[in-house]
């Protein structure tokens, strides 16, 4: 019986891998066609998005939407407050998180860091993704813009249960001791939530991750 269960689990794992590979191929082809990326670069970004999405229980389409708004997939993009790379990470707001990061413009590193920051904001907001996006970009309008842009990428990597898993995971973490429910590599708490005034704009003392300087 145990051998049969092992075969089932192995088959399930192979199916998941095949689905992920198919999603990555579609994603890469879309980035090449829509944003004019070289095939190798599109593949690298797609792989990084899939990896980070799986690691932090975030929808791949959400990460793609953020990248498209923040940098239009230009890994060397620079914005206000030193915002850097694909997801416009602000080094000054996340020094603890970036201690061992040598090149924030490297796509895989930038997407990993940006995703960890977003996961941290979501955990702080008890699973509320709108609130997390507001913290990430500094305004309610930014959160709404990302939500709309997600629709452009939704068909590339459909994972209907991802958002629910993320909400549940954040809720569990909120109820658990901090040392027992840290994000991978203990990155969940290494972020600074930007102060938001009554107009919905992040205060300059604690700059948000997304700068919008590289946005379209």
Automatic annotation (TrEMBL):
<dbReference type="InterPro" id="IPR008258">
    <property type="entry name" value="Transglycosylase_SLT_dom_1"/>
</dbReference>
<comment type="similarity">
    <text>Belongs to the transglycosylase Slt family.</text>
</comment>
<keyword id="KW-0732">Signal</keyword>
<dbReference type="Pfam" id="PF01464">
    <property type="entry name" value="SLT"/>
</dbReference>
<dbReference type="InterPro" id="IPR023346">
    <property type="entry name" value="Lysozyme-like_dom_sf"/>
</dbReference>
<protein>
    <submittedName>
        <fullName>Transglycosylase SLT domain-containing protein</fullName>
    </submittedName>
</protein>
<feature type="domain" description="Transglycosylase SLT">
    <location>
        <begin position="48"/>
        <end position="140"/>
    </location>
</feature>
<feature type="signal peptide">
    <location>
        <begin position="1"/>
        <end position="20"/>
    </location>
</feature>
């Amino acid at each position: 019986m145990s051998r049969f269960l092992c075969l089932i689990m192995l088959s399930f794992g192979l199916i998941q891998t095949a689905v992920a590979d198919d999603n990555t191929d579609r994603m890469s082809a879309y980035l090449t066609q829509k944003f004019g990326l070289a095939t190798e670069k599109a593949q690298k970004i797609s792989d990084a998005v899939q990896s980070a999405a799986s690691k932090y229980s975030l929808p791949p389409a959400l990460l793609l939407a953020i990248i498209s708004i923040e940098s239009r997939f230009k890994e060397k993009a620079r914005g206000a407050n030193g915002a850097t790379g694909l997801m416009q990470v602000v080094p000054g707001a996340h020094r603890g998180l970036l201690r061992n990061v040598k090149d924030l413009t490297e796509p895989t590193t930038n997407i990993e860091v940006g995703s960890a920051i977003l996961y941290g904001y979501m955990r702080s907001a008890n699973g509320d993704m709108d609130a997390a996006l507001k913290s990430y970009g500094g305004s309610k309008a930014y959160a709404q813009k990302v939500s709309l842009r997600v629709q452009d990428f939704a068909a590339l990597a459909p994972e209907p249960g991802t958002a629910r898993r993320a909400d549940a995971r954040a809720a569990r973490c909120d109820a658990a001791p901090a040392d027992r429910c840290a994000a991978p590599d203990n990155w969940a708490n290494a972020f600074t939530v930007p102060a938001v005034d009554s107009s919905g704009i992040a205060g300059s003392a604690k700059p948000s991750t997304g700068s919008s300087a590289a946005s379209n």
